[in-house]
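Holo model, magnesium ion. Inputs:
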Amino acid sequence: MNQPVLILIKPDGLKKSLTGNILTRLSETKLEIVAAKMVRVSQDLAHNHYIHLKDKPFFGELIKYLRGELHDRRKVMALIYYGEDAINKCRQLAGATNPEEAESTSIRGSYGRITTAGVYENVIHVSSNPDEAEREIKLWFGPDEIIVDLFPTKNIEKTKKIAAWA
Ligand code: DAT
Ligand code: MG
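Output:
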């Protein structure tokens, strides 16, 4: 079954110039990239993204990490890959959550580390199941930013000033 999956290249991945390597590894899946952008992650976005972990002792550091506060890189690269069994394929390539336990040839096994403060710097995020993928994609992307129709949309009236090229 075709399905979408949210991938984030986290600030450590960007700081270590791993974008190309990671995209090359992900291209082994033959999945289609249907959305991609650089994002400055707000407190709200980081909090909502990791809401399922909000009671964990490492939550505060995790939010700082995702926002780039630990790497002086206030951005992440967000992508949606789409295709057959996309979540499994990408999670397989990513490797285990704990980079020390991740298979050594996986992305996290190759490039991740645990800091002395206990932060899992595991380079990428990959949605863990179809419901999480839908929730996360709707947090990170609007319908107009995705080149295929993934989920039902509605039209809303918005009158808002936006920046345009001068
Ligand atoms: P995953 O990112 O593999 O889906 P998750 O959703 O359980 O794993 O956790 C999200 C992130 O939180 C994970 O990428 C790194 C961090 N994390 C999870 N467990 C942790 C722990 N025990 N100590 C420190 N960071 C942890
Ligand atoms: Mg997860």
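The pocket of 2'-deoxyadenosine-5'-diphosphate (ligand 1) is lined by residues 53, 58, 62, 97, 118, 120, 122, 125, 128 (CB under 6 Å). DSSP finds seven helices and six strands in the chain.
Archived with the compound record.
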